[in-house]
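hey m, so remember when u said the tokens were messed up on ur end? i reran from scratch. heres the input so u can diff it against urs
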Amino acid sequence: MTAPSSGADRSRRRLVLLRHGQTAWNLQLRGQGQSDIPLDEEGHRQAAAAAAYLSIREPVGLWCSDLSRAVQTCGYLEERTGLSAKQDARLREYDLGEREGMELGAFVERYPAEHESWESRDDTVLVPGAESTAEVQARMVAALGEILDQIGPGETAIAVSHGAAIQAAVCGLLGWPGEVAAQLRGLDNCAWAAVEQTPERLRLLAWNESVRPGHDAPATL
């Protein structure tokens, strides 16, 4: 159990950004993008473990991408909290265009310049049909800003989304330059980031924290 909240804690609003659990395409290193791929068996175990821990924070609202891997992950939070999640297509992963469904090796071979650009989080060269980071940030930041506006001081909300989209959104929310994203380690499946809004500022509270079945939970949240 957590210690009683201080007066300062009660003035803060927290938004937890949870990446979905593992899918078969994650293991195959395929670009999922907005392809609707469900959780695999391990992904369900991860989602159950994350929900057991995050529900202790007593969130007042749940939101999720409308893609099934996010909806399924959020379902475990719904069971734990009794809340009904609101689905929002703005919380989807990047649209990867012609890269979707492509294994990593094939992506590197077919689109070497685009792969290098993706790795450095530089939108100079994009795969045909792919969303830019600016486009992803615009929709993600708008959606997350609305969520923060709907929770009160001392309250926590959880949004289930996707790894690269969360990375872009955190940089957008905090006003960090684009090159910072390349310095952040990618989120693991069912790991989360958290931002905290105080009367003075919005700041990063946690990054890539997770709990796995049979392991101790992190202590940040």
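this time it looks ok to me. Confidence is low (pLDDT under 50) at residues 1-7. if urs says something different then somethings off w ur setup not the seq
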